[in-house]
Amino acid sequence: MLDTLKLPERHYLNNGHGLKSWLLTKDHKRIAIMYLISISAMFLLGGLFAAAVRVELMTPEGDLFLADNYNKMFTMHGVVMVFFFLIPSTPAVLGNFLIPPMIGAKDLAFPRINLLSLYIFWVGAAFFFYALFAGGVDTGWTFYTPFSSFASNTNVVPTALGAFISGFSSILTGLNFIVTIHRMRAPGLTWFRLPLFVWAHYATSLIQVLGTPVVAITIIMVFVERAFGFGIFDPTRGGDPVLFQHLFWFYSHPAVYIMILPAMGVISEVVSTFSRKTIFGYSFVAFSSLAIAVFGFIVWAHHMFVAGISTYSAMVFSFLSFSVAIPSAVKTFNWAATLYKGAISFETPMLYAYGFFGLFLIGGLTGLFLATLGVDVHVHDTYFVVAHFHYIMVGGAIMGYLGGLHFWWPKLVGRMYSEFLSRISAILVFVGFNLTFFPQFILGYMGMPRRYHAYPDEFQVLNIMSSAGAGVLGIGYLLPVIYFLWSLKYGEVAGPNPWGASGLEWQIPSPPPTENFKEQPVVHGEPYEYTPHVAREANLV
Amino acid sequence: MGSFGIPLFPEQASTFARDIDALYLFILAVSAFFALAVSVAVVVFGIVYRRRHAGEVGARIEGNLPLELLWSIIPTMISMVMFGWGASSYFHMRTPPAEALQIYAVGKQWMWKFQHLEGQREINELHVPVNRPVKVTITSEDVLHSLFFPSFRTKMDAIPGRYTQLWFEATKVGEYHIFCTEYCGTNHSGMIGKVVVMEPSEYQAWLAGGGVEGTLVERGGRLFQDLACNTCHLDTGKGRGPSLNDIVGKTVELADGTTTVVDEGYLRESIINSQAKIVRGYQPLMPAFQGLVSEDNLVALVEYVKSLSPTATTAAPAAATPPAAPAAASTNPPGAGEKN
Question: What CATH number is attached to the domain comprising A197?
Fold first, then answer.
């Protein structure tokens, strides 16, 4: 790094001071930073609940918490992580910050709606905190009826309303992205010149806008049943408990793709940048995002193979579930092929991308076991499923999110973090994650059901391995908090383009000015151009 | 089976176990192959093509259509093998043989109650004979539960308001876990038990050792009188309700012009929610027994009514679900399915 690098005099962070300048901002970058702080706090909270679960499971007897309290711990872990961390994570922080500069725009199409979505998120979180301090909730994050509609005497309604409200924040973010990507691209930036990160967010936004209203309706139905005694899901009042599962998974399965697609977008950017090479099969990677978004909507009943659905509908949903595996496989092969004849370096974001490969491979491939009817009957609702979705939602989505955060951190704050510590953290996360969740596949095939407070003795060894891994994972997640905060003041000045990346967002100062671009950029070339000439230019900026 | 003292598979104790484990190992082998292939590729590329000087850039390779087609089509074909194998195993698991021994299971926060036709009732323990198909008809008194036999590789949800079923044929004498695998509240993890697989002769001896209330049919017959069902459902067919003789497995015409097949689900629904599907030609006079008859007693009543159809009794469930008919009926009988 050159000694002459200096932070720009005016940028979005020092353009206005005081709380009011943040709370009333319309700058997508400031909103992204507020999202970052909010969801990091939620991640910490969700992590504490997970730690409680893992400590309890170190012994077969339920000896640390009362059964009711344990049930609340795993429920609140799931609710916080899914609705208040994973769903907003990459889109609301990185997407919010980066989509405008990536497409050469000054802001999102609707800056006020963007701020509104953050406020709605906070209101949703407030409902959750109310439920938490009023004693918590014990339905599992899936809110299955009729348990949630009449059997649970915990705070089901405030929690569900929290999820309902934060859903609107997700819808508004998606709507904003769709309009922005359609209407605000720089001259010359055709659809097939868009960074794949933008394609992934476009696909994600479609799911947010089309899927989230369905879960909103479902939650309202549970609310109406609990509050007014209408028989919708409760069979003693003529309702159908399985109807809830259809409605819930119609959103919540695609919601998994809300989490993983943006992470896939991050991986495409990181892999291309750190191998200094255009992405292999650009259009296949781009369209596979759309394919995942579309197929994701027609596989929901694979959560219900033993829930009393008919044999033939189970067969149809099994078949369709395999269809969503193919575009994921195509992406993975294309990333691997991108590395071929690249000029590869292993700074921290690339380590996270490699970690993503390993974990997403296992997560995706274990999905095949669950799509296969005969095997799913055995492993459904066991720890096999717990392991599988953590490999996707933590191994895939969070590795992608953290990789992206490390990749764009210099753009966010203008300074570098400790390369040494961040590499240690990436390795700890990878090792700790596998130690935590791999034993759970074996536990699941052995038959250990999920959501068990106590378990037979023969499962203890694997559970201790899992809990030990969770400790390592926890350290891996805490380290970035330390070195990111440290970097704010003491980090080396990054300059506009520390990685020599090709995207438009790297051509503006770090941190960027409020208006992103001094003058409207015009795009002439293809994305991911890494010719020796461009590399030289990038280093000179 | 195990390695380094850590068990990897539960006991194989049913006819399904070998098939499901083989399918599991097949998918595992395919997964391991692809996981290793991609991992080795990215690691080798990472080493061979590492950046050697600051200005180095990668080769300009934009893609390769044949390669894209290859790695789309081959995984599709392999996944279709998994689909076919898995679907055929599932179909087998969802189609109980006609001669299967019939047992009823009722889930309740937080216990499993089992009833044998001979009258034996047990809680959190299930005695079954070895080498004989056993069909378990399952329901719940309160919330969702799921009846899981890991050593048999099968499970099925217990759903309040309707009957579901699973079957298995145990192949090894011994005791194995029963777990509840659908989260059901406070003591979910305490809703466990054991299935005791016995030699047929021992099973017979065990059956003979209980049943003070008589067989399930006898108990159902008494309930039929106690609840005064017999005052309307006359044998002659001239009562205020239809005769219940020889109706199981038959198709009846309903007041609204539609038809339904009489099976366990329809019988159960007609007791607790009698107005739902009135047989054509009869008035909706019968009181609903929702909340008045426990699931255990409903099971006895259903078995009693089934006993009035002697030709259909042994094959009653099969009559409602001939293997060639849409198997939808086996897990989602018209009387018990979604009401909308």
Answer: 1.20.210.10
